Amino acid sequence: MGDGSVVFLARRGAGVVGVDISSALIEKARAAEHDLPLGIRYVHADVAGPGIPDVSGPFDAVVCSFGLSDIDDLEGATAAAARVLAPGGVFVCSILHPCFPGGRSVSGSWPADGSYYSEGWWRAAGELSSLRRQVGANHRTLSTYVNTFRRHGLWLDEMAEPEPAPGWAATRPDAARFPVFLVMRCVKHGDNSAADGGA
């Protein structure tokens, strides 16, 4: 992903490849890399496709920061992450919490006329949900995420539900009463026994 997470990792000494389907975002990231070189290589590609050009791995980690809900093909994206990870490597993702119901002027994780179980793509209506009002998002239940990861040999190792920033919470106290964000860390098994249903 061509976002702050790749810059953060590169500044900590990691060798980083950023992948995004948006050519505009990739060009912005490449321009930033040109101005302040960190050794990040950016690739314009669909992470859910059958293969990412010039990206084969194995990598120690794959990170997806607030991107999974923007990807229609969760199965394909998860397969790609598992494919390029070394055995024992980690897949870390952050998302809007699938259980977040929203609040006044803030859209939740699912359509207002639906429920937590209403999976699929939708466009937010809350005036403070500006990005999701523009581009929409995919809502999936927590079990859909965890079961998809496990089918591809990525076993949930740890979860966190960080509180929103105090400034955000202070202006949206009704929404801040609920879990807003979810971070998951999965570990890739050394073989495909998880994906094949083995123990």
Offer a few descriptive terms.
alpha/beta, four-stranded mixed β-sheet, 199 residues, disordered C terminus, 27% helix, 6 helices, globular
Structural notes for this entry:
This protein is α/β, with parallel strands linked by helices. It contains six helices and eight strands. Strand 3, helix 3 and strand 4 (85-96) form a beta-alpha-beta unit. The chain starts with a helix and ends in an 11-residue tail after the last strand. Mean pLDDT is 89; it is low at 193-199.
Discrete helix count: 6
Q: Note the gap between the termini.
A: 32 Å
Proportion of β residues?
Answer: 15-25%
Shape: globular
Helicity level, as a percent range?
25-40%
Spans of at least 5 consecutive residues whose pLDDT stays below 50 are: 193-199
Q: How many beta-strand runs?
A: 8
Q: Give the SSE order as H and E letters.
A: HEHEEHEEHEHEHE
Strand order across the largest sheet: 3-4-8-7
Major sheet description: 4 strands, mixed
Instruction: Tell me the structural class.
Output: alpha/beta
Mean pLDDT: 89
Rg (C-alpha, Å): 17 Å
